[in-house]
Amino acid sequence: MGVGLELDKLELDKCVHCGFCLEVCPTYVITRSEVHSPRGRILAVRLGVKSEGLETCVFCRRCEAACPSGVEYGKAISSYRRADATKKLAHRILENPGLLYASLKVYSRSSSPIALRIKEFVKSYQPPLQYKDENAELLLFPGCLNSVVYRSTVEKATNYLRRFYKVEVYNGCCGLPHYAEGEKERALKIAEKLREAFKGKVVVSLSSNCTAHMREMGLDVFDFAEFVVKKNLPLPQREITVTVHDPCHASLVGLNKYTREMLKRMGAKIVEMEDPSFECGAGGTYFIFNPELSRRIAEEKGRKVKATGVENIISTNQACSLALSLHGKVFHVADLL
Ligand code: SF4
Ligand code: SF4
Hints:
By secondary structure, the chain is an alpha/beta fold. The protein is built from 20 helices and 8 strands. It binds iron/sulfur cluster (2 copies).
């Protein structure tokens, strides 16, 4: 992980401005503006000039996978972003799913712009599931949004895993929103807290981008489908045709192949969409703070989903699921159990 602004600037100095990253960048594809491209953002940091491009980055890090010079954009750029008070408040709420539930209740009665935007995405919510078997050996990490917005998925996964393991549900945040928005120190503290909580346990995450982030922070975590596949757990057969969205960070660490493998083992038919890891438009809390660009990215994603002619969308990441529900019926693989 990045240590100090100077080192992070050196990382960005590896950029040779070739532009190979432009066409994979959702904000560039939507705007065709250099300011909203990885290359433009990197240049702004190197020149030390202010740029609105730093605020409009979705932090999907697709540019990293495309970069022939190996620029670790995410690690470096998170040191130059600054979360304002509103974003910091949102991050504190996400750290505690119980507080997230209470906050959503408050937002449901508000007509502030932020509340209205949240209500466009979040249609229903429940208190987080509290569950613990005696001598639990497996921690199920739902992810902050899943705990509250997709509780039925958490229940499905818990009931399934309980057939084979003693389970405890751990409701919390992985720290990715903090890291992405420039609260790097806070993200490191969250990782330390999780390291303590995870000690001696097998940890299974229900949110693929959280899984990817926690792994990058050095934590030993399985993604749900990865765990099912690697442990060869028995699966039911399902006659369903789906298209699969690849959450961006999960793509970077190679998790999405397990989602497809689990679906194949269940007998599901997969119709691939074009460029499945193209941003969904949610981007963690991006949809709240950059509503216009988020809408345009979601429209582009919607075109890719619609072209498949398939109504059922598989998403193993919570925020993506919210954005994708604009285009069809969204399922986590655990929903099919
Ligand atoms: S970040 Fe990488 S791909 Fe993008 S312009 Fe720089 S060197 Fe080229
Ligand atoms: S992280 Fe995503 S949105 Fe940001 S510059 Fe890279 S590709 Fe573009």
